[in-house]
Each structure stands twice: as C-alpha cells, then as structure tokens.
Design goal:
Length: 271
Amino acid sequence: MGFFDWLASPKRRASRGFDPTDRFYNDGYKLEFFHVPTGRSVGFKAFLTAFQDQFNSNWSSTPVYGRMDEIKTFQGTTRTISVGWDVVAYSEEEADSNLRKCGLLASMLYPVYGEEAGEAGASTIKASPLLKVKFANLISEPNGTGGAATSGLVATMASFNYAPDLEQGIFVENSNKLRPQLVKLSCELTVLHTHKLGWNQEGNMREEGLGDQGGYPYSVRFPVEDLPVGPPRSVAPPVTTPAAPAATRDAGTTAAVATLTTAAPDSPEDS
C-alpha cells in the first residue's frame, strides 16, 4: 500500500486524528524557508519528489589568431538547487493550514516596500526578497545544526510552482474556499554563499574552523584516503653528465685496447 492509498484507507480514518508524520516534522525533517527582510518563516513536511544540486563553473573565452584553443579565464562557480515536494493534507484542518503555508511562501517572493511621504500611492523598495532555506544537511550551511534562520543557505528564488493534484480530491467549505488534499510544489534557488569557498595552498578547504575535514556542501567529511598528507614537495630535476665528443671516446678506446694487448701474458706456443 502506497502512502496516498494509506491516507484514504479506513485504518487511517480510524486513527482518531493522529498523524504519524507530525513526529518527523517536529524532529526537524522539514523543508524550511526564512524570509530575511521580515523574519517570517514557513516549513513543510519533507515529502520530497525531486532534488537537483547543480554547480556551474563559468569561464570567459578569448580567441587568439593561429591558436586552435581559446584562452580561458576563470570567472566564478555558481550553485543552483531545484527541489520539488508534495504537500499532503491528513485532515481538513491540515488542508487549510497547507493552503495558508503555500500562500505565505508565494508572498515571500515579493520585496519590502516603504511608503514615501507626500506622494499618494508612491512606494520604494526597502529590502529585496532574500531567503534562507534549510533541509537537513542537503540544503544547509556547512555543519549547520539549527533552523533556516541560523543555518539555512542564503538564496534567491527564481521560480515557484503551485500545482494542486485535483485527482486526489478537494475539501469544499463553500464555493469561495477550496482546499486541495494534495499540492505539488517546486522551486529553483540560486545560492548566495556567505562562507569561504575554495582551497588554500596546503590543499585544504578554506572553510573556517573545518580544516581538512571538509563540510561543504553537505556537511560531511572528505574520505580519509583523499586528504592531502602535506604540502606539495618540489622535485629536483635529474642530474645528467654531458657525453664526451666522439673523437675523445675513440682515442680512449684505442688506448685501452693497446694497454690490454701489451699487458697480456705470452701464450704456451711462444715459450
């Protein structure tokens, strides 16, 4: 029996309002979004359906006359996270709560405005809609243990998709309030790193306090066999002895043969 079949089963309806997934949410297994300008946050149970973490290394190219390969100059590395998840309603009350959460997350894509005195209706942007996102160790600051507000990745949200699954049913209160039982959500995040990245000259990551243990991007240590054993050692070039000229080699060989012939003992026939 699948999870959604279980939701509609008599066994689930007879559980008297107890939702076992609440325990995992309360234990921290959730996808959480924190709106930096306002301090508002919203969390969803981590029914993830898709996750993709893409790293793009960007280089500029300069063509050179007569050269087959262009000259490459490194610009930077960007990180984009695409995540999809299901928002499931265990009850009519949870369907109402889920609808409110989805609306709050959609609202987090808008900036903070300030009203200008003296101009009716005029407003200016005071803060951009930056987010901090946290999901276990997959979307997190290195070795972060808190919630999104303290250890989430700072990111911009390029897109947010809301898609109710109408086949799973809708709770109807009246014609002006429909609450889907299942909603499929997805978003795309561009990470803005707030910690040191890259390597130092000793072959260790530059993350503060982590040394050669790593931690970026998924808060895990590097394999021991892949750790550097020390700074790179310089290798001296091999020492070679120049070869003697050919005339010198021939003269030396002739002299050695003459010496061996003179020093050889007489044979028995000569005695």
